[in-house]
Amino acid sequence: MYAERKQQAMEHGNHNLISASDRNEISEFRTIAHYVEAEKLRGRPLGAVGKYSVRRKFPLPRTIWDGEETSYCFKEKSRSVLRDWYSHNPYPSPREKRDLAEATGLTTTQVSNWFKNRRQRDRAAEHKE
């Protein structure tokens, strides 16, 4: 598999051998492994705070982290794309949602939920005024 990836990278002039999807998979696997280890040490399942502590204690190495901080699980770059789109069209079509999902690295469901939540927050803010 490595030789195949290396060949693909060379053909495309890209020397970064780990794709974004592989990087996400590796980082998720690594994080879950740290959760399991911490649960064994503590003798109980981790809650949200425990998981946060583990992520802070074991940050991802530069080889599998793209360097961008996440906020509410979405990277700022992704949120920026969604906000820009929302300012022009708060009701994207299913095709547009698929395109946005591809552009942001999110799932179509995440994109749909982001728009739904944003519209709800805007409506709630209007009622407060």
- How many helices? The count is 6
What's the count of strands? 2
- Rg, please? 19 Å
Helix content: 55-70%
Strand numbers in spatial order across the main sheet = 1-2
Q: Uncertain regions: pLDDT < 50 for 5+ in a row? A: none
Broad structural category = mainly alpha
Element-level helix/strand string:
HHHEEHHH
Number of domains: 2
Q: Which shape, going by the Cα principal axes?
A: flat
Largest sheet, strands/sense/barrel = 2 strands, antiparallel
Task: Give the CA-CA distance, first to last residue.
Answer: 58 Å
Mean pLDDT: 82
Range of strand content? under 5%
Secondary-structure map with pairings?
Layout: H1 2-11, H2 20-42, H3 48-57, E1 70-71, E2 74-75, H4 76-88, H5 94-104, H6 108-128
Antiparallel strand pairs: 1-2
Give your account of this protein's structure:
The chain is mostly helical and 129 residues long. The protein has 2 domains: 67 residues, no CATH class; 62 residues, Homeodomain-like (Arc Repressor Mutant, subunit A, Orthogonal Bundle), CATH 1.10.10. The chain is built from 6 helices and 2 strands, in the order αααββααα. It has a two-stranded antiparallel sheet with strand order 1-2. β1 and β2 form a beta hairpin. α5 packs across α6. The longest helix is centred in the N-terminal third of the chain and has 23 residues. The mean pLDDT is 82.
